[in-house]
Each structure stands twice: as structure tokens, then as C-alpha cells.
Design brief:
It contains six helices and eight strands. The chain is 33% helix and 28% strand. The mean pLDDT is 84. It has one domain: Cytidine Deaminase, domain 2. An eight-stranded mixed β-sheet has the order 7-6-5-4-2-3-1-8.
């Protein structure tokens, strides 16, 4: 891993971070039992302004019990569908990266690089967020994740170097949206539904 070659930065909306937390912990029971935990995968939605990326939304996609899970062409189709939806809604949002949870620490593994090649080769600005629940719970002052990107602008392969990008979680600006989200979480809880639903569960 190398140092970031420029002043890249990622700004994360707090409501997006809450969605990520709920998705990743849904498949990560505190009391670990064989086969209970799974890796959660999803997409980062926002926009890019110069060297700054703004993550405004999180879209949970699926979960899998294997750390070496290969993200197939379905993810490319999800990206196309989400980008079309966001375009129709107006604004600047599009898919700018993907995320996954981890039970092996915060690291950009060979499998992650292989998966990421499918995306960054098509969009050189794509990023990956790796979230580790153990770090989030047990290390005070740590948010449990890092954001990575392959080094370079035009050509990438499995041996490409990568680097971390600095980030910040913003302050709450849209209080009404936060309250609306929590109403939905509470409603789902009382109806014995998942607080967060994946695309795989809808389609």
C-alpha cells in the first residue's frame, strides 16, 4: 500500500453511515457461532467534485459467508439500474464505489482488488470501503473502516498498488430524513422485518 498521491477526500453523510452500520451488523451477531456471521456487500451512492467524493446514500445488495466472494456481473447491472434511477430523480448522484464488511480486520485483500478491477477499470474514480465490526465495537474513537482505491488512472491489474483515502463523517443536516428513517426502522422492528433490506431480498 502506498500513500495517497493527491488531496483526495471522502465526505460521508451521517444517514448513509447509519445505513451501513445497520446492514453490516444485521449479519454479524455479537455471540459468534459457527455459520452465523456473513459478509455484507453494498454500493456507495453520491457524487464527485474534483478530488472530493460525497457519499450520500448506501444501497445494501447481498451477504455471503465467504471472504473470497466474487462480485459477479449482477453488480454491474445493479449499478446501471441505480444510476438510471438517480438520473431520473435529477441531481448529481450515481454509484461511486462499493463496500463490504469484514471479519478479518480492515484490509484491502487480493479478492477485494480482483473485485474492484471490475469497477475501477470502467470508472477510474471508484472507491472501496471496508468495514470491520470488531474494530468499530472494541476500539474507542475508531469508526471501524478505511476507504481504498487502486493507484493510477487508466490501467489496472491484480498487481496494481493501492492507497487509503482520508474521510470525514458529516454533521446531521436533514433532521426530518433522519427521523423518517428511524420511524421505518421502528416499524420494521415491530413487524418482525429486517431493519435494512437488501436488493437480493426484493428482486
Amino acid at each position: 500500500m502506498s500513500e495517497s498521491p493527491n488531496d483526495e477526500f471522502v465526505y460521508i453523510k451521517p444517514e448513509a453511515f447509519v445505513t451501513l452500520i445497520l446492514h453490516t451488523f444485521r449479519f454479524w451477531p455479537i455471540e459468534k457461532r459457527n455459520g452465523d456471521r456473513a459478509i455484507a456487500f453494498g454500493l456507495l451512492i453520491g457524487y464527485i467534485d474534483g478530488n472530493t467524493r460525497f457519499i450520500n446514500k448506501i444501497q445494501p445488495i447481498c451477504h455471503n459467508k465467504e471472504n473470497d466472494y466474487s462480485m459477479d456481473d449482477r453488480f454491474l447491472k445493479f449499478i446501471q439500474d441505480i444510476n438510471s434511477r438517480e438520473f431520473e430523480m435529477g441531481g448529481l448522484n450515481e454509484v461511486i464505489g462499493w463496500y463490504r464488511s469484514s471479519d478479518q480486520g480492515i484490509k484491502f485483500s487480493a479478492t477485494d482488488i480482483k473485485n474492484h478491477l471490475n469497477f475501477q477499470s470502467k470508472n477510474s474514480k471508484f472507491i472501496t470501503l471496508i468495514f470491520d465490526q470488531e474494530t468499530f465495537l472494541k476500539r474507542e474513537g475508531q469508526y471501524g473502516f478505511s476507504i481504498f482505491r487502486l493507484k493510477g488512472e487508466n490501467y489496472y491489474n491484480i498487481m496494481s498498488d493501492y492507497y487509503k483515502i482520508a474521510w470525514e463523517i458529516g454533521t446531521i443536516e436533514d433532521t426530518d430524513q433522519i427521523i423518517a428513517n428511524f420511524r421505518n426502522y421502528i416499524r420494521n422492528f415491530y413487524e418482525n422485518k429486517p431493519l435494512i433490506t437488501e436488493i437480493d431480498e426484493i428482486e
